Amino acid sequence: MIDPNLTPEQRSRVLIDRLLTEAGWLVQNPDEINLAAGRGIAVREFRTATGPVDYLLYGDRKALGTLEAKRDGTPLLGVEWQSDRYVEGFSKTAKQKGLPFWHLPLPFHYMSTGKETYFANRLDPDYAPRKVFAFHKPETLIEMAKARETLRQKLRSMPILTSEGLWENQVEAVEGLERAFSRNRQRTLVPQTMGAGKTTISRAEAYRLLRYGGAGRILFMVDRINLGEQALREFRSYQTPDDGRKLGELYTVQLLRSNHIDPAANVVITTIQRLYSMLRGEPELDPDLETESTFEQAGTGESEQLPVSYQPKLPIEAFDFIFTDECHRSIYGRWGQVLDYFDAFLVGLTATPSKFTYGYFQGNVVAPYTHEQSVIDGVNVDYTVYRIETEISKGGATIEKGEWVRVRDRLTRDQAYRELEDDLTYDASKLDRAVVAEDQIRTVARTFRDRVCTEIFPGREEVPKTVVFCKHDNHAEDVLRIIREEFGRGSEFARKITYKTEGTSQQHIQDFRTDPKFRIAVSVDQISTGTDIKPIECLLVLRMVKSRALWEQMKGRGVRRIEPNEFWAVTPGAREQGAVKDHFVIVDCVGLTGEDLAWAETKPLDRKPTVPLKTLLRDIGQGVATDELLTTIAARLARLRDKLTPEEEQEVAGVAELDLREITKRLVEAADPEAAGKRELVDRAVEPLLDNKVREKLLSLQIQKEQVIDIASQDAVLSAGFADAGQAETLIKAFEGWIKKHHDDYVALRAYLDQPVERRPSLEDIKALARAIEPPPLNFKRQRLWEAYRKVAGSRVRGDGGTTLADLVSLVRFAVDEDDELIPYADLVKLRFDLWLSEQRSNGREFSPEQLGWLMMARDHIAQSLTIEPEDFDYEPFAQQGGLIGASAAFGQELPTVLDELNTCLAA
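-> structure tokens emitted (908 positions)
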């Protein structure tokens, strides 16, 4: 406790004396000086030719530097000139009296209030004071004084990087880091998308810093112990480019399992939790505290920074460089003091930088590498989204008064039956937290079971490696049980990997990585961030995520590319089918992918996964060049490229005069809404695809490479319930009879049965009709009706319809003889659009490429929503292109007329 009667200057001196003592300095008055008392002596008010310096620092009986003390609140950089004055004064005094020193002028200088401290090393090139948490130990300054070159001098003479074995983005990252170090940038951010090799960047640079850069010890920090174990293996096994030896053979790599650093360790790997424990002076840390990610702990409401004090056993100079793996918000929010404690170069590695991230790293960003770039480069795979929505997951439910329910204790899981005294209404937010609706979980699991090898991954023999993300451990327990029941499989097929799983989670993760029988991992957070499991092809999302960065991390579990032989070894049946991992699928069961927050960071390149490549290329040939179309074609061509032989790639290059990688790269660059010279980029990107010969070559190769799969079993499932055509006919008669009986009750029916038609049915009208006919007892489900008509009407039924709400329009029109053929509504709209467009051209009405882009988006909107109205332009994909203002700029006063024409000609 500091005496409150002291002046501000005196209080600062007390704090400074305390910090010096903690760092190993002996503080002495000038008339009591004893240089033999220890290695580091700090002499108060030492007289020089230009006045007394607040503290003169001696190391091994030779003067090292000065310390300028100021009262709390003093802007320290503003008094930097005083250090210069005392340096000059000491030099004169030393020469006059023959005082011992290490260098003249004195090299090391501190400015401090006791609460804020700056340090400058005049031996460094272009030196400037930098903020430090406390004072360095005397031994450190002595070693620095003895050295022939300083760390920062060596960083300016690093040898040329040997790029063998590194990807292009990794080379750019290493070279960018070394440029930043040479410019004395203390903090550097390396934003690299998931799967881009952030650990490889770290270990390649760590080796160069240890061998050539003068680094003594490097810290690699993670936020979960299993990621530390993964990093330990990767660092030790890194094959150095000079003589091929492993990094672990040349340098000591330590993963901290206790609060003690091996003095011989060159690379230290630890969790931030353990590092904080060490800075608190705790003798040990409970290992369980390292299993949970600090990323998840960020959501606990604890927003204040964690306090840190100086620890002599772990001085501020303990590390020369710190690499923070996945440096998301939580690490330098509450945990910021842990990083700020060390006088080290700080490197942030993350796939999900936020505005706070950029601010923390002072805008010093090198080698940014996006998801889109990684897909085009063949580093990662793209993804598509498959949505499963149930009534309960969307709207919740009500359990009526008097019903008996099971009540479960959250902690013990003990259960008892209880009669409800009042109605219990719950919404989606309470689902699986306050209320567990087992049938909702079962419905999702059953739907996934029925469609994973038919629609999601057509023709697969076995469920792809799938991670199920749950809300909490109890939810995971319920999900695991129901998945096993619905699939009729046991513990080899599906297991839980959470913080409460028995056995080591790392062993379970390794089993999931390598065991072909282990297909589904049910998790909460254990494998949501950082964990590298390349065979994963599917993410089943059963939880909402409020953090955009965490959602990006979760998506990152699927992006890793894997070599075919490795993939086949853990994916039964894939080799025989010629299947490779060329994409992954997010199965969204909670509407997460429809949230603006979730999509803000990265979107799939393939924005139209159900549209055939032939249709996409036709649109390009007609002059359409929307961002959505460009990225989608780029994704398809990237996937096609993975399947081509070198000879086939040469065939494409011969026709297009560009290789496929360059074509896809240009398409992605042109789709960047913020790109400079966008019009020129778009023209350059689409130019090869305007040639019909190029489009035909690509389609020809696609047909050769895509295996035709007999999915008769899927057809049987779709037609399940119809033993013969007679049953199908009975269903159709019932459906058509119901329409005639109830045609006055629903706008969607009156529109087709009454003449004249007073108004077109809206999407809400169709929804109302669906709500009336699809639930029991009628059970007139769209797919069921479609398959019934296929059995009865045969060739008059085209395509696989009944999958969208709009297909109900086609079913009604066919049922009332408005149409001669039953065609999926989207196909019908596209056919009408092509006819309308041809008529316009025949009449001399031409549309610009920009206008065609708007028209195609309007066409697709009508295919889903039945009409297009001005207010629809407030939403995607229109909003991305400028919304109603952008459309008005493209069409001018013609816009209302065009919209009316589209509604008249395309909508049924």
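The chain has 37 helices and 23 strands.
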